[in-house]
Amino acid sequence: MLSPRSAELVEATLPAVGAAICDISRMFYERLFAEHPILLRDMFNRGNQANGTQSQALAGSIAAFASGLLAGQRPETMLRRIAHKHVSVGVTPGQYAVVHRHLLGAIAEVLDVPAEVAAAWSEVYWLMADSLIGIERFLPQGQQEHRVIARFQETDDVVTFVVRPLDGPVPRSKPGQYVSVQVQLADGARQIRQYSLSGRTDDALRFSVKRDGEVSAHLHDRTPVGSTVLVSQPAGDVTLQPGAGPVLLLSAGIGCTPLIAMLAELAAADSPRRVVAVHGDRDQLSHPFRAELAQLVAKLADAQAHVFYERPIGDWPADRTGLVRLDGVPVPPDATAYLCGPVPFLRAMRAQLLEAGVTDIHYEVFGPDLRLAG
């Protein structure tokens, strides 16, 4: 917890810092990349930097952590999520000192705060950093060269890759986790992106990639069977939990990838649990794993699928046309719900789930987690 004096100063300055936190985040990244351009080239997502989403996510996490400290709580879920992202891209403990220097420099530059206030926010930072370092220490780390042993065209813009390590056993994984994949682009940058594991296999890893940005385009166009990619250990804390209660899987677009892996795990185990899978997409042709969804649901004793298309091709039920709505879906209030998709989808589904009485809700989002940024 914060020291009493620091807590007093942070509470007094939180509104000002919160109002300026996006400017502080932008200034932080400008300072960081000016001194360490290799981080932008080889670690940080250049697209997220360009559109500002990474700055928004950083701002939201700092504000949420500071608010939690003032309330006498640590936001454990947020910390675990950040820690898993960090180990998947190779963040090291020593880099926290570099981040501290540039973050405090950005706060001073944007707000011109007194030294005592800067010291209080430094305490906030190190409490957060030490928490993350402690979590990251116990997570699987490292990257391995993997060979592409198969690839499948799921839709016009989604490809599934099946990869196997060049040396050693296949890393252990859980349904719902993701891997970081690093590729060398034409300009020499070694960019990293996370992709969800999208199925169950014992002797390889399977992940699916939607064409959306420079790394995914490289994987689609320049990664044939037989080529190699650098892949991290599987990471992510939104995984299928054991139990006997109902399972609710809610996805939109490419967000179906981690949830189809959960469904495959349930089917492989002949699970007797009640399973309700809900998916939303543009139309039938853009829906990845459409046939697999139907096949897996058919294998389970108590499962059903509800699919919504915004612009369906041909005849399609009117009550399943448009955006996903849960009012016509049998939602067990005691279900464990797993969500994956764009942030607006996550917000809409969470609100509808709470209205239906579901409170055990877990979500995964691709890219920076902007839910914390409001």
TrEMBL record:
Q: Which UniProt keywords apply?
A: Dioxygenase, Heme, Iron, Metal-binding, NAD, Oxidoreductase, Oxygen transport, Transport
The FAD-binding FR-type domain extends over 141-241
Spell out the SUPFAM superfamilies in the cross-references: Ferredoxin reductase-like, C-terminal NADP-linked domain, Globin-like, Riboflavin synthase domain-like
Q: What GO molecular function annotation could you give as one example from this UniProt entry?
A: heme binding
Q: Which reactions appear under catalytic activity for this entry?
A: 2 nitric oxide + NADH + 2 O2 = 2 nitrate + NAD(+) + H(+); 2 nitric oxide + NADPH + 2 O2 = 2 nitrate + NADP(+) + H(+)
Please report which protein family the annotation says this sequence is part of.
Belongs to the globin family.
- The Globin domain extends over 1-137
Q: Which organism is it from?
A: Lentzea xinjiangensis
This chain belongs to the protein called nitric oxide dioxygenase
Q: What Enzyme Commission number(s) apply to this enzyme? A: 1.14.12.17
Q: Which InterPro entries match?
A: FAD-bd_FR_type, FNR_nucleotide-bd, Globin, Globin-like_sf, Globin/Proto, OxRdtase_FAD/NAD-bd, Riboflavin_synthase-like_b-brl
What PROSITE patterns does this protein map onto?
FAD_FR, GLOBIN
Gene3D superfamilies, per the entry: Globins, Nucleotide-binding domain of ferredoxin-NADP reductase (FNR) module, Translation factors
- Which taxonomic lineage does the organism of this UniProt entry have? Bacteria, Bacillati, Actinomycetota, Actinomycetes, Pseudonocardiales
Per the UniProt entry, what is one GO biological process? Answer: nitric oxide catabolic process
